[in-house]
Structures are given as structure tokens and as C-alpha cells.
Design a protein that fits this description.
It contains ten helices and eight strands. It is of the alpha/beta class. The chain has two domains: 110 residues, Glutaredoxin (3-Layer(aba) Sandwich), CATH 3.40.30.10; 125 residues, Glutathione S-transferase Yfyf (Class Pi), Chain A, domain 2, CATH 1.20.1050. It has a four-stranded mixed sheet. Strands 4-3-6-5 form a four-stranded mixed sheet. The structure holds glutathione. The site of glutathione has 14 residues, from loops.
């Protein structure tokens, strides 16, 4: 039996946060899911499974309308909604399926808490753990703006672009500043704040691949000056991404960065 089960669309950088951490601290994470367009065919549940056509009907008791990132009908069980009141993926579960953990940063925390090994991934003291939390929380606004921005890249408005630029500048400048004083984001050791930083920022940098669509609407990619504007943050991202525990999951996410 695994320590944690995660249901999600795949691949998903939010899931990689936990998988990378698990590789560093010896936790077994089971991942169940499918490519994004196929997740509408799945029953969202601890025992998630692909539904046959005959069970995918609008009068199904599981049918619900997608709210964020998914349009159309999704099939979520009542038990799934009890465990995951916001109805989102990645959706993590305790091994018996009774406790739902949502929000990728919380799933990341649950992963390292499940470890029996002596690791510093959540800091070494209560205060260090709180400092790790500070960075995870600071990243939430960035993550939310990036979600809206990346989903709407082909049809971006000036307001969305400006909000994204501000959230990016705020989050990444803090990371760059922190790295003036210590080797890693939160402490002098690798923590889950570094892992969340690499996955969230790496995902955001994908905007550069959509430069053409942005230019068509009169916008520039926000992260174009990343290397020069935030040199410490850039070097930290690329050196962590090269480590096997990261590279095994990130794959080609940072290609060309
Ligand atoms: N901040 C959340 C984001 C989760 C989220 O918004 N997931 C969306 C897909 S990107 C979802 O599950 N939507 C379900 C729906 O549309 O009903 C995290 O980091 O886990």
C-alpha cells in the first residue's frame, strides 16, 4: 500500500512537487490519472476509474459542471466531494481513502510528513518550518495568477497580463533576495520551498513558448528577462532542475530556458 494516493490529470507540475519530494525522502506516492482531455471520462474518486460511455450521462448522480480549467461535465462522487470540497485535482488521499488533501502545496507537505527518514525538507526547527510555509504561501498568489494566465494565453487581456506581471515580479524578486543570504530558498538546505519554486516557476516559464500568441495580441512574454533580472533565482532553478530527483519528473519542462 502506498503512503499517499494522488488523482490528477497528467502530466501535472503540481503533482511533480510531491513526486520530487518523495524521491528525496523515501515516500511511496501512487499517482492515478490521465491526459487532461480524458479526465472528463473519469470517475473522480479515491478509486478513480475511466467510465464506460454508458455511465457518462447528464443524469448521472456524479455529473457536475467543471469550474476551473475544465469545461463541460465532470463525474465526481459524493465521497470525492466530501474529501475534496473544492472538487479540484490534484486530489490526494490518505492510504485508506478517508482523508482528502487538496492544494498541491498541502499535498507536498503531506508527502514529507509521511517520511520516516531524517530529512530537512520541512526545515529542522518549528521556526524553520514556518519559514518554509512563508515561501509556500507567498507562492500561492503567483500560482493562481499563473493558472488564469496560462489557461487564457491565446486570448489574454491587458488586466490579466498586468496582474500576472505583478504577481511574478513579487514572488520571484523575493526568491532572488532570499538567495543573497542563503544557499536555498528558505534555509541553507533543500526544502519543499525550493521544490515548489522550481515546479511553479518552471510551469510559468512555458509562457515563452507562446510568445507568438502573446505578440499577436500586443503583449510580450513576462519572463523574458528572467535570467538577467533575477540571476540568483535563475541559477537556483536551473541547478536544481539538473539534479536527477528533479530531472526525472520535470522532463522537458525547462527545455530552452
Ligand atoms: N491551487 C490548486 C489548483 C487546483 C485546480 O484549480 N485544479 C483545477 C484544474 S487546473 C481543477 O481541478 N478543476 C476542477 C473543475 O474544473 O471542476 C493546486 O495547486 O492544487
Amino acid at each position: 500500500m502506498s503512503d499517499i494516493r494522488i488523482f490528477s490529470y497528467l502530466p501535472n507540475p503540481r503533482v511533480w512537487k510531491s513526486l520530487i519530494a518523495a524521491d528525496f525522502c523515501g515516500v511511496e506516492v501512487e499517482v492515478v490519472g490521465d491526459r487532461p482531455p480524458n479526465l472528463g471520462k473519469w470517475l473522480w474518486d479515491f478509486d478513480a476509474r475511466e467510465l464506460p460511455d454508458s455511465e457518462r450521462t447528464d443524469d448521472s448522480s456524479h455529473a457536475r459542471t467543471g469550474r476551473r480549467g475544465f469545461s463541460g461535465t465532470l463525474y465526481k462522487t459524493d465521497k470525492f466531494m466530501k474529501a475534496h470540497p473544492y472538487g479540484t485535482v490534484p486530489a490526494a488521499f490518505s492510504p485508506d481513502g478517508e482523508i482528502g488533501v487538496f492544494e498541491s502545496n498541502s499535498i507536498l507537505r503531506a508527502t514529507v510528513r509521511a517520511s520516516m527518514q531524517d530529512h530537512g525538507l520541512y526545515g529542522r526547527t518549528e521556526f524553520e518550518a514556518s519559514r518554509v510555509d512563508s515561501f509556500l504561501d507567498a507562492g500561492l498568489v503567483f500560482g493562481r495568477e499563473a493558472q488564469v494566465y496560462l489557461l487564457g494565453l491565446n486570448d489574454i487581456t491587458a488586466e490579466t497580463h498586468a496582474r500576472m506581471a505583478a504577481a511574478y515580479e513579487f514572488y520571484v524578486s523575493g526568491i532572488d533576495e532570499a538567495l543573497k543570504h542563503q544557499d536555498y530558498v528558505a534555509t541553507n538546505e533543500l526544502t519543499i520551498a525550493d521544490i515548489a519554486y522550481v515546479c511553479d516557476t518552471g510551469q510559468f516559464l512555458r509562457e515563452r513558448r507562446s510568445e507568438e500568441a502573446l505578440l499577436k495580441n500586443g503583449f510580450k512574454a513576462i519572463s523574458l528577462g528572467f535570467e538577467d533580472d533575477y540571476p540568483r533565482a535563475y541559477r537556483h532553478l536551473t541547478s536544481l532542475a539538473a539534479r536527477p530527483e528533479f530531472a526525472n519528473h520535470l522532463g522537458r519542462l525547462l527545455e530552452g530556458v
